Amino acid sequence: xxxxxxxxMSKNVFFTFLNQQVLGLSGKNNLxxxxxxxxxxxxxxxxxxxxxxxxxKTTGPLSILIAxxxxxxxxxxxxxxxxxxRDVIEKTDPDICFLIGPFLDATHPMLQSEDTVxxxxxxxxxxNELQKLSNRLQDRRTKVILVSSWKDAHHHAVFPTLPYSIKxxxxxxxxxxPGVVSIGGLIFGVTSTDILMHLSRNELAKTTINSDRxxxxxxxxxxxxxxxxxxxxxxxxPLDIEFWADHARMxxxxxxxxxxxxxxxxxxxxxxxxxxxxxxxxxxISGGTYAxxxxxxxxxxxxxNSIGNGSPIADFVMGEIIKI
Length: 324
Known about the structure:
Helices cover 17% and strands 24% of the residues.
């Protein structure tokens, strides 16, 4: 064990540590009892995957809508915010829509009440909402990607979380939490677990006053090459350690990293990766927010300022946070 005496560090030394963080240290152990650290070495993120990008000015910009649950207000079991979002999807017809769980939070106040009577099972409620969404997608180009959550009333309460079990829909697919998908050659990474909040509770940091805190939180994931680089986990997370070791690793640095959180929404460039926190579609008894991004790449993959020539994807992304 290395004891870090932060009070003895120079005022000009800045650091950020997590429990069980992987890093390198350089220092001296003159008395055999304490290592006096002089340098810290943080692992580099994996490089971006080199793949042919099929998005260009000929195909048109890629439009992506991102919304995270819960999709019910705390005073009702109706899916009114999700209904409003379906209206948005039908009107704007994005190429891709990420719907990130939980759909119906297992800790919903009305589910804890003995007075609540449900006519359908949780699975049936979930499938009914998917059918409504599927009906609205007819004659639309939108493909929906469902990201599971261990908080869902109808799903497995374990993290990492298996994809939802759904019947076959032509325009809807389900992925695990965390999950990685390739769209047009671009890599999207996403987790429904509020890792930003959990890191903010557990980080030990000495930084400058104007430090980008949210960017720093996201940077931990990429540097540690893990979608949940925190162990022991936050006390709220039902983590399966063997499953976590196998399925939470970040095998490649995503071009787009989606991290929904209770913390304030943002879209930002973090070392070339576009990190998106859409916040939640519901906030208590009222509607919340969702994110929309557009990716517009050069026509020629060899063109100057293209990704193939080293320009980050952030140079070609526009984004906005919208209130539902």
